Structures
1.
Amino acid sequence: MAVTKKGPVLRVTGLAASQPDEELTALLKAAISDSLTDDEQSRVDVRVAVVPSCYNDEEKVALVECRGGVPAFLSELIADPLGESQMEMGDTDINFDQHFFGFTQLYTPTPDAPVVADVIAITGLDGHAYDSWRGEGSLGRMWLRDFLCKDLPCCRTMIYGYNSRLSSRGVDTIMDYGRGLLEELKKIRGTEELRQRPLFFIAHSFGGIVLAHCLVKAVQTMEDDHPTIASLYRATYGMLLFGIPHKGLVVDNMQKMLAGEDRHPRSALLEQIKEKSDLLASQLDDFRNLVRDRKIVSFYERRQTQQLQFDSEGEQRTRTGDLVTAVDSDSALLQLPGNMEDKIPLDADHSMIVKFDNKNAQGYSSARDKLMQFARDAPGAVAGRFARAQNRPKPSNMVPFPRDGAFVGRNDVLAKIDEMHRRTASKDHSRVALVGLGGVGKSQVAIEYAYRAREAAPHIWVFWVHASNAARFKQAYQEIAVRVELPGRDDPKTDILCLVHNWLCDEKNGRWLMIVDNADDDQVFTSTSASANAAAPLASFLPQAASGWILVTSRDLIAAMNLVGARLNVIEVEPMGEREALKLLRSKMQVVESAEGDARALVKTLEGIPLAVTHAAAYITVNKPMVDIATYLELFRESEENQAHLLNDKKARDIRRDAGVSSAVITTWQLSFEQIRKTRPEAADLLSLMTMFDRQGVPEHVLYEGRSKLQFAEAVGPLLRFSLIRAQAREQPEMRLQEQLFEMHSLVQLATREWVKLHGQVDVWQRAALRIMAAAFPSGQHETWAACRTLLPHSTKVLGYSTEKNDEARLDQATIATNTAWYLMLMGQYAEAERIGCSAVAAREEVLEREHPDTLTSVSQLGSLGSVLERQGKYEEAEAMHRRALQGSEKVHGREHPSTFAIVSKLGTVLSRQGEYEEAEAMHRRALEGREKALGLEHPETLTSVSKIGSVLERQGKYEEAEAMHRRALEGREKALGLEHPDTLTSVSNLGLALWRQGRFVDAETLGTQVMETRKRALGLEHPDTLTSVSQLGSVLSRQGKYKDAEAMHRRALEGCEKALGLEHPETLTSVSQLGSVLSRQGKYKDAEAMHRRDLEGSEKVLGLEHPDTLTSVSQLGLVLWSQGQFADAETLEIRVMETRKKMLGDDHPDTLTAMANLAFTLRSQGRKQEAISLMEACVQAQTQVLRPSHPDTESSTATLNLWRLESLDLGT
């Protein structure tokens, strides 16, 4: 017998239900036959099946299979598969379509038995409502129709069609498709009987995504909104899910096919369903939670699928592309436990997974068995759901606070809660904790989250449990029992905790969210004495049911972790950023435009802590018009007493804050302090100590106070857990590896100090902080700079404490001041170093008396103060300080002690600064001789003396001797200290200066550049030593004729010196002079003169009339006057320079010889040629002996002299 091949199936609608099926079949066949051509009469075999309409009882639908092809009169359906065709059948207009949009019933259920369930099949993307389920065999069996009509005759089985063709210009999104499905469901399940009829869904691929969206939306629908949609979730008993891309679909080939069409409307849909889609991830979490108590059967493909390609010749899409796994098992499975989800692999690709040619196919037999089991079990289960829903109270929101309509910010925290809940809920019961400082807004975030959760899912219960103590926890459970109407709740013998716990564990009671607020005390949950049932702690009554999730708020990280199970389930709630805090302030009070700046400053001052911002807004509002934002800010900044008063004001309250919790900021934190003091007194002591230091960057080693590492960790733990302090790891190679630095909010520090004050412990902890810092702050030498940088804010803090009544504390303070002053001096902060250093001297003199040996030792140690004075150009004061220190050191330690040599060296330096070179050299040689003997030839202090001698020799014009000394110092320092040590760099700089003095400018430039770059990196651009390097390099460049570069260097140095040292500091004046010189060399005489006059005026005032630097200033001014032709004035100045230098430096000093040469030029310019030649001859003779003949100055003077002599011969003079 010949097998007739399958043909396309069409749907016919508009048939009158009043006519019997047989009559309709005959009429329809006749009408079609009348429209066939002669050829078609013998070729086309029309088969008709009449079925009920899903939508009403007045119409019927026919399924027409045309074996042999679609008749010509219906050819328009082939040309336009989405179109329709009409024809007359007697008095009735009937409609043909091939798209099957909407619902189509596939067969008539058994007429003499009730319909057990509705079965709805939803096809996938680019699928067909009928053909997607049809086998590829020659008979073309459609299993939903041809097989289920016999295996599941008691069900109303329907297919759902919708336009998902990629070739169409549809702009639908997942939401649009979901709305369409819901709308059609309203039409086919409009009566109470139909709404309560069990539902089985069969979905393929994208159809499952649409189904999931609909069920999520249905759960959020209230009965009053639409009863059919509201009942959909309860009626749904089970689902067969075939290759559902819960985590996205491989859409690369589809996107490529659309790529040639600019902005194709389907591109947006493909973006929604591609792999790793955020939209699908979010929907998956919701869907997964919804179907935990439903029967889920997930089929997944085990063969790869050929991708779609566009056939340009046939102008159609064909599966001829690469093989890919369209939906892998990870995406196709919901990953629910085995008792919740049956997972069945099928040996088919993504398209064939829903096509079964015969009833023995593996996939069909599995699907049939599941559906038959559904049909047996569903009626009772679904009826029970509807019965319980009618009898039990409706889920409600038990949050005891109104929603804040002006809630602002915290979207990041709310998003994290959602993310963590979804991540955990996908596998099991979910718990998340919000942890942070009191007043940071944890409860406010929880309130907002509760309202949002309820808004998104109105069917869930929201419970609020205040957990500050056991009594309030039990009270909250009692209120839950009343709200959900638990039987036995009024019986005094009932264990209310067990009763509520058991109800919450029963998934039949629906989903719930519980907020456990203020769970700050771990003992409340872990102690059995806190529970009515002495054998079980309160924590055991928090259910771990999959139907619910818990959000905890706590100040204590440990308490939170013990409740939520792991650190990864904890969200740390930080203070608000400036923008969010500003929004919060505006939501609590009116902020006029003119007060925007003050508002911004206020929230910044309050560090973005929500409770503080809200409290300030309330205070300002209550006290208007006397207090506005500016006034509040002014009062707050005025004193610590004002801050404490303002933050402890209790007049205004927040209605969204628990009545048992203070609204005052300081009181809020002091509750945490008290809890810590009672449970861990050593932690309270540590907090008290920390608050005496600066609030930021407190290194752990200063907090040990005799504790071991373990003891310290246990003491600091509660402070970190309660967010009272924060820790940050920093690498401090010079101090300790990976040392922790701690910090606290300024307002927390204030509250802690108030708490310490309340307990009368301020003096105790201030003295402890002084003792610790006196031992901890290093000497200030280069190798301790990293430690000094870290400790400087803390030493500055403790130096401000009053110690008048405690001599021990005063001496500790003096020790801190001495070391701090030395470090600040090295950092170029001279004024501050002087102030702090003087306080140290004064304290030790008062406590120990002036002649006490320890006082003399202290004065000796405070030679650094003389150095500070010297660095500020206060040479006479510095000399006096050093001489006093030297006298004391010689008396206490003796003349040969290293401490004495250190002071001798410093005295030599300040003498050199004053131009007293011979005495300075003597001092340095004494120090060098003593150090070589006591410390050795290569000791750093010995090398310092070598360097100092080199500098004083250079100032005396002994350049070769100076160079030798600087080279020895440099070689030793590189070996002992390293290439980048400040002392090494000083030697490089000094050697460069000595080379420059000898005219070796290229070598000097190389060294100068090296020093400048290293100091910039190590000390910063504005450090005085860096500026000195910049200035010296400018002078070297100038001598090489690189005037523009030199000018830029000198201007930069001058600007930095003025800022760092002041307008009249000697270094600043030197920069003024050097800038004037380079301006003069460029012919900018007026500008140069102004600079030199400023330099001279300052030098005479600061250094005196005969100081070498003052004489240099006089000389430079004379040169610029000479350049402008003002020869008489220039001569007067140059004679002054030459005579004073002869007196101060000697006749043969290079600077004296330079003055002679300058005067000779001035005499010649006035026509006094013979005087000029005589003076120049004397100058050349001396330079040849002192500087050597090859020195640039000697060569220049010799050349000038020879020229003048030649000119004299030519003129006969």
Note: The first strand starts at residue 9 and ends at 16.
2.
Amino acid sequence: MILVPFSWRSLLLVLFLTFIHSASVEGTCGYSSCPKTKDGYINVHLVPHSHDDVGWLKTVDQYYYGDNNKIQLGAVQYTLDSVVSELQKSPDRRFIYVESAFFWRWWTNQDAEMQGIVTRLVNNGQLEFILGGWVMNDEACSHYNSIIDQMTLGLRFLNDTFGQCARPRVAWQIDPFGHSREQASLFAQMGFDGLFFGRLDYQDKEFRKQNHDMEMIWDGSPNNLGNASWLFTGALYNGYNPPDGYCFDIFCEDDPINDDPKLSGYNLEEKVNNFINIAQEWAEPYDTGHVLMTMGSDFQYMAAHTWYKNLDKLIKYVNRKQISNSSRVNVLYSTPSCYLKEVHRSKRPLSVKKDDFFPYASDPHAFWTGYFSSRPTLKYFVQKANNFLQVCKQLAVGAFNGHPSQEVISKVRDFSEPVGIAQHHDAVSGTAKQHVTDDYSLRLTVGMKSCEKVVDEAFRKLQRTSPSEDQESNEFPRSFSTGLGTTYEFCHLLNISVCTASETMNDFVVSIYNPLARDLHNTYIRIPVSSPLWDVQGQSGLIPSQIVNIPQPVLGIPGRRSKALYELVFPVESLPGLSLSNFQVTRNTTEHVHSLKIKSQLKAIKKGGRIIHSSTSKLAASANLREDFMIKNSNGLAIVFDSLTGMLKSVIKGSVEVPVQQNFYFYLGMAGDNSKFEKRASGAYIFRPNTTESQPSPITERVFSYQVYKGSHVTEVHQVFTEWISQVIRLYDKTDLVEFEWMIGPVPVEDNYGKEIITRYSTGIPTNGVFFTDANGRQLVKRKRDTRATWPYKKHENVSGNYYPVNSRILISSNEDLSQDGLTLAVLNDRSQGGTSMNDGEIELMLHRRLLFDDAFGVGEPLNETAFGTGLVARGKHWLLLAGEGTGVSISKHREVAQNIFMDKMMGFADVSLLESTEYSFMRNAVSTRNPDLSSRNTVVSGLTQVLPANVHLLTLEPVSPTQFLLRLEHFYEKGEDPVSSKPVTISLEDLKKALPSVKSIRETTLGGNQWIQDMNRFDWIPRIQQDDNNHHTKVVDGSIVLNPMEIKTFLVFT
């Protein structure tokens, strides 16, 4: 158990007493507190629970307090009040709680007496925490970094509050709409003994029931971590609901148990006998003599006595039948962990699952694959919020000498909470009501402002100290707090070319932080500006820059308030890892806007499309359009366009030219009243195109217009497909990537048809129906069209049944084994999307959805997003990487590129004119035009870039107290995918200590940071078919840290 100072506001005395108490009661909680069962009987484990969505139909606050009950009855505070009261009435009663976000809020509102009562209930096992994350995260759209963070936030809160007795042994993902293999791997590394979930494909479920295979060993990392990633996994019989007729909540319609024969409604015998029959039916597919029965559902137990009074009777009278009728059914209050303990004791051999549980279908025409792409702007916001949070956490350690103040830590936490909430399975998934989605966005915005203060202070602190000076001082000139609230401004709308700071300042410093533990080479900076005349200074002097036009469709985005008409582009040879780099940008007052230099950059070198803006004759224009045109860079990458259509035609890299056609298409969303399966509508959850074929409709066969702009750093092709779809295809000079920046919306629905917008990249690469998608941004999972690995799949929906979540990348290859260097095309994205390969050699990604019907799975409104009085506009990026045979590019390069995207560099803007007064003099050297000192500023952890190999990622650097921080190191390559980078690595612990600030000690923990690694003792399971014994987790030995492919190690660092 990790006993660390409680880093949250208040409760210090209570926590101190808790730790003393918990140390003496560990033997009475956890598995040791489980009730006795009866061998030879069907033991029915009744699990009282309430599934409390952290936002869905109501906002987080509304669900907690019980507001807006006309939408849904639900008030978490009353549930916890009522349950705690009822648990005290009988030591046999149990209750499990899951969502730490709600429990934390309730706990902080209790007085010391109530906290003492709750602590006793936790210590004796009556109140048990299951899962323990801040939320029950989505498994399709959440990035692994965010999953780990939100789990850590919850798990450490429970540990800091209650100690070992609150450590969850079981993961509980009962409501997410499909399940990821990476999630299982992460749970195993967090020390969980098992996982239970409620949703799996209806065909899979029936097949498993018939084959008594509802419980299995899930191999979360079969190619890398081996049985260190094994996780017992159980599919619940009835989702997370009670049996029909046995919902005893105050809002349920089922009859209570009437055990008074004098009353006309007497139903005891009927209730008991029916329950015995149900218990036998539920137990049959499990074969262990035990069955887990969930007694609860959404937002129940607000009047917990109605449940417990009836469950007490059910237990009493069903068990009495053992004597009177020789019944072999034994009923008891229990928890998932107690049930798991009995399954483990049975020593039943289990099958081993190596793939995942995507896609999930609940009936023949309801594939839950639409939410992979629903609400694309929210998905982007969540991804960028995580990016900024990682920067904030790193700087809270690295810029404050490893000793941040409690105030800084609190500001970090103020952003960690909403980012954690955003991982909820109805948040990032895009499946909440619109007003709830707006609330998620507001929470992220407010939290981001809190972390902006941390990053601003960190930047200022780093700027104050030159690279040669000692960085011990934590103090700032008092006068700095006067005047402006911050020196640095941050721009979070760069995706629509908006940055108020760079648009309004005439002379400013751009400070760029690289959060990767490796240098970024040959990168390019883009800044929105209102004028085309600028000079850029770097450490070595003037940097040649380029000015490009912002596309006209972007300028016309509804609600876009910006003076920017251009983007300034300049190259950076190297951005040092974990360091701050400075550049000064000054408006050029000597050059004329109509100068040849500027005009040549802003004038298109080629135009075309259905409307040709050219002064040449029609004959000359026609001849010109019959020729393909090519743009290329100095890295040997070239892309060829069809002059007539204005569309991409092929990609050339190395000695290989691959035909690549890219276009936009749409599926009409199925309209329906959901009265039966065949009338299922496409909605927030469900993707159901109104076609039985696999082919969507193309937006156009020829772009409306295109312009080609060529420069020294980037060449761009601006394409307009329709009035609501446009795109920029970019080729930077020193890169292996082709960048596609698409813009969709407002999607027209005036024809009363909802539409699902996709893009396709079509090639001639032979793929035999095989493609690869990432799992939560990490491991790759092999897919095969119209195929399921573990059951005989019967196809009903041709397209949606082949859609999978794509969190960071999707690949196709001429070789089904990516380690064999076949010709490979990878497309990386900037947010979670649904993707597939409906035809060989093709990649398809869904970009936007606007629908007019609800799919009848609870949200109660169509997915028809609007903003500023019209349909929502979404803008985002794809990156195309051609690799493998003949290209000179390693297939594994997608690893590095994906990390560059999700851990993107962070820019801050400071107005030089504000630094002329004496109160800002300490920064003047960094930005003064008289004596420019634009050298990089190191953080106190910049030395990690010299210690960590290139295949090791600094996943987490997070303060947990003024004298402790979490450190996570990740080997981010898979075994066999690269001859060098896929090898295990060894890191000297001594070198690691030297690279970190004033380290006193380092101790390894589980992935969740809530248990010492040496204390982790997970259940072992017996596979039905013997597997290779390849447990690849290695502990820190002989002063060295060994990281195997895909392994993450977590440390608590004491300073």
Note: The first helix runs from residue 12 to 25.
3.
Amino acid sequence: MSTEVLEGTVVNLEPQKEVSSDPPIEDVKVAVQKIEAPKAESKTPESVNKFISLSLILPQSTESIKVTIGTHDHLHELRQMANERPESCYKTCFTLQHRGKVLDEFAMVHTVENLIDGETVKCVAEQYSLREARLHLKRVRSLIQPDIQVNAQNGVDNLSLTFAGVVAGRDVEEDIQRGVKEDHGSEVDVTPPEFLFDKDTPLVPLFPDLPAPPPECVTSIGYSGWNPPPGNRRMLGDLFYLTVTTLEGNTIHITAVPSGFYVNKTNGRSFDPTPAEISCKGYTLVDTLKQVSSLFNKNFAIIQKQSLKRNPYEVIPVPYPTFTWCKPPTDHTYDTLRAEEAYVPNSTSDEMSLGMMSSRDWNEELQSARELPQSNLHEKIVRDRTIFRVTCDFVSMAIKGAQAVVDGNIPPLNAADDKKSRMFLWNNIFFSLGFDMKDHYGAFGGDAAAYAAIAGDLRGISLYQSLDTEGLHTLGTVIVDYRGYRVVGQSIISGILSRDQEQSIIYGSIDNGKTINSSEKFGKVLQSSSKKLHLKEHSVVGGDGTEHSLVTSYDCKGIIGNDGRHYLIDLFRSFAPDVFALGVPLKNYRGEEEDEIKPMFPCPETAHKLATLRAELIEAFACYRYVLFTQNMSAKFIKAKGERETKLKEIEESKEERKETKDNESDNDSGCSVESPVAHSPKTFTESDAKEILEEIKSSGTARQFGSVTDTEFDMRYNPDIYTNIGSNDNEDDIKHDRQIVQEMAMFLSDSVIVKFVYELKTMTQRPLDAIHLSDLMHGRGINMRYLGGITKALEDNQEKNHNYAVCLSAVITRAAKQAFKKYIIDIPSQQLGAAVAHFLNCYHGTLERQKTASGENSPPSSTQNKKKKNKKGKVSVREPSSTWSTSTAQSIHTSICEIALRKFGYTLPVEAGQIVMPLGFLPMTRLICKAVGIQLTLRDYSENKNFTESDIMNVFPIVKHSNPRARDATKLKELAEDRLGNGYLGESHELITDALNTMLQVYGPLHSDIESSHKHLAHISYLFGRIGQAVSHQKQGLLASERVLGIDHYETIYCYVYLALFSHNLAQTSIALRLMYRAKYLLQLIFGQDHLEQAAFDINIGLMLHTKGDSKNSQRFLESALKLHKKFHGTGSVQVAMCNILVARALAGNADFREAMKYQKHAFEVYSEKYGEEDKRTKDCQAFLSKLTQKAVELQKWLQNKEKTVPNMLVNEALPDTTISEMLATVNGIPATPSKIKSNVTKESETKNEADEKLEEIKQQGDKEDLD
């Protein structure tokens, strides 16, 4: 989104993955495999997913509907299609039958014999079992009491919020299908809301006005107190009894039997489950209630109609729970069914269908999924989908378990031990706390090391899972930060709980290196992944003097479970150590004069000794060194080739001279015998010479100079144990080499990666919208967050003209405040939690004028009150919990934050009057701390009263980290498509990303972050091809996925709103585009404020769109706002300011204010003249419009002198053409070309693509592995 318009060149500054111009050979192999794989797999019919059309007869109906389903889809999809129909949405108990045979709903379509295109599948109603009847009740309840919005606000059932449809007002896609086009004279109100111009951004507009909720169908419905049925009634088929209160005020009792539901004779005092005198019976509960209540019949029909209008993507659960940091207050409704679901586990679980109530074996499910075959594309999709779905279920269950652990609802396994050392087992998930149990991390920093080790272990697990090494297994792991505690939940290795841990470890060390184990079999398994991870096999010596050869760090432990699988655990040292964070004195091993290395961007020494570099940095360093190696090899080869050719030339010249001398001697002595010809060197440079030179260069040790562990081939590896206290028998040269590599990685981070990133921030070519965006940018470049203090310090010099300083400073403050909050909240009991959180927020913002937040209704009683309770009637009251948190003050909290910021980031926060100077406004800083620690606030207007009370704290939610399994082939195709798009191959990129999206939809479903980026990618390409309708469709899906998965105020969501607005404007849907842009601008104000350079782009977008609608007055307001921001950040003499001046002049001309317009246009003309010269086309166009404005001003003055009351239309008709506005919008928002300009490049792209295909075919035909290596 971020763009710069400099000298007519558009630079797209949206964060993208950098692609090396000279990728490693390994990447070339992967690219070839990506293209070859589909061709190879297309030969197998079973691996091709085809779509067939079927006739589906709905349950209890003779009519059929036409449905389309893929041959690789499960038959269960047909059940879902039936449940989406309004006439059968409440019918749940049926089987799918084909030609009289019951189908297995978990089988795939292509496995059913004779199920081909045009066949009929029938939904046959079956009798209810107890389980089916309870599921039916649950379904009916979800239809008649839809609490989707409430559940989405609370993150229940993996639901999340989306407001895209409400913001847009109407569906653009439907308008396209109906051929509706918006007229410029449309009377739709597009007046911008006034809160966009408020200094303090309000919070209430974050939740737009939603449509009226659906009407109620019943007053209440729930299980009767007469349950369960007595034995004699069970013999008659009674399943359970219900009590229903209708809207008419009648209370009825219903009996569920295998054949359906009927109203019985039971009343409040007597039990009689026999049918009532007036028969009210139906196969479904809905049919029965329709007979009893006319209001139910009426309102249920309304609900069915509303459900048809709802976008299905708005109600589909997301893969992982998503929580929002604020929500509007809602009334808590009475619902006995909801209560039962919350407190009676597995009441309607699928586990009942298996005849058991035991927990799932998560480890077996996860490992079995990874062992599924993957010989063709279909098997790969099934495997990836299974891994993803099991992981999603595991994460959801682990979150519930972690919250229960912190809330004290799960008993510990070792209740006698210290609280920090307690362990828990729930639902086959092992939970432990993020503390140093049994002083295991004492040598590395105690609790701080234990806390860091958990995060490092998860990063290592994610890395090994991404490699997908056959025969190597890792544990399912979820980290949950909740109420100050860090809880880690892991799957359980088979048999690990039935034996001692010391007996389980066959690889690595369990006692910090005193005893080390090694396994040849385990080592072989690790060898295949060590090269990809750049891990070096090294020698370690245990405390007993025994030498072992390890590939990983000695802290990594290998276990063979009872299931025979090889497990690798404790992977927190899977990356290279960060020597700057460890405080290691650095030596210069390259022989320069200085002995000590001083980095440009050092970081403070961490409180633990487990600081490592990020995997992205290590991979970037390896690629960087490979490029240097190839360049050095190329230079040496060219030099040696030149020397060899010169030598050959000299030999040839010498041979010719000898030949001439010999010919002269032969003429003088013709009687002498002629000697046999002498062998000589070839006349030209041959392939054998090239190979000989390459061997000479390799043997000279060139590769080792660039970090390779060998002298002949480039194979850069590092020793993860090089800066540990473990002993080693490696020779001194190897140790020196290992230390040099690790130090040079850190120097590469400090003096190359961070330096470049700081330059981008200083020049504002990178413009993160908030601290979350900044974190993603840093992690994508391999920069650890501990370097944030140095980056912030580098931006201090020009902080007034660079909003990136405020973003960086807000990130430092938020991360330090998060640590202070965890320490503050960790021991606070539940009954004081709301008051304590409100007190902390008031201290954080320095708003403690009202001390009532600490003495509310649920605040802790005073000591006097306790004494009174003890003495009353001689009874001893229960000991009240401590309330020491209430003694915290704003100064103490801010002091703690400053100390943490200095210790963790090496940065001194700005302080005035004992309090930190916040770089952003009240709401942006509140949002950051709430999202960081998991606080949910009440949605209200905080601009008038910024003091938090206990009632403002709605909830606390967990912050979750976990591994995120990917669709491997689809991810590779997506990355390749992004690369092709970056190189301008639109058609090829479109084909690749379409294939990737189709695969992702089969693996993830419709909602995932990769789905969002793929839709955005396709929308961009469709726009460039001129297919604006398709661009709108894809961008709309991307926006829905972004809101549902990432959040309604995530920075990606803001960009999605902007692009959807641009594409809608190109379809002449300017009113919708304006509403979308208003939303984007508001969200940016909410997460940062007004003074962000992206606001200038948003203001220009809105100003130009309002200009299209003829609203010149409001257009001028937004364009002047953009001009003000550009003046602040770029200076008055910049091209950006000149462009804004031109746009403001256009808006003023539309209001007939020609004299004022001349001032702005004249300034633009002066800038263009200075920048480009008077002969440049831009300068001449600017001068021409200035002359026209002058002429108009003179004419207007004449009209006024003649005392005319109105100005002719011809004088104010200075509107820009639609095509010009569209091109300007594309330029401002970083789209490199408009649809009209891109079409001419398609033919050229096709020709270039054919050339590339021919070249690729040559490479594949050569296909020699030795050549690739």
Note: The radius of gyration is 36 Å.
